[in-house]
Design brief:
22% strand, 6 helices, 165 residues, Rossmann fold, four-stranded mixed sheet, alpha+beta
């Protein structure tokens, strides 16, 4: 991420910090705190997002991408220590005090169908390389189109963006 930001003039001034809400300097203020497939591993997700919101500047954004739908929980989720999956209502309920939910929508509608098929028929704890490549090379590009057609109403993942007020 640092290299990609440095290579783009509009982002070259950005500083990327990695760590947890407990390890970063608590006096620092950030424009954004991003969780990409992380929150579902954390037992107390609301407490985590509360800590993250305190690290934001006014008008800063808290961004969460997480797996969707509890009914889609599989052996794979258990194998990689997912505590939960989210819906619009469960992720919205995690809104930290002092933040307002700006956007909440689903992504990867084609992947949702593949996940349902995998859950019903494959029942394997981990995907193999062919399945990962199929997902990345075929299903993700299809989802880029189908997500718009479904108005982001369904998907394998859910994205939330909160603004600190």
């Amino acid at each position: 991420m640092r290299k990609k930001f440095a290579a783009q003039p509009a982002l070259a001034h950005c500083r990327v910090e990695t760590g947890t809400t407990q390890t970063v300097n608590q006096r620092q203020q950030f424009d954004a705190v991003i969780y990409i497939d992380v929150l579902e591993h954390i037992e107390n997700d609301r407490q985590e997002l509360s800590r993250a919101s305190r690290l934001l500047r006014s008008e800063g954004r808290l961004i969460v991408l997480a797996p969707a739908y509890r009914w889609l929980y599989t052996h794979f989720d258990g194998a990689i220590d997912h505590v939960r999956r989210y819906t619009r209502s469960t992720l919205s309920a995690c809104t930290p005090v002092g933040c307002e939910l700006e956007r909440l929508f689903y992504l990867d509608s084609a992947g949702l169908l593949a996940s349902i098929g995998s859950k019903l028929f494959l029942k394997q704890p981990l995907p193999n390389l062919k399945q990962i490549l199929l997902w990345d090379r075929i299903l993700v590009p299809i989802s880029r189109v189908s997500d718009h057609l479904t108005l982001h109403g369904v998907g394998r993942s859910i994205l939330a963006i909160w603004k600190k007020i």
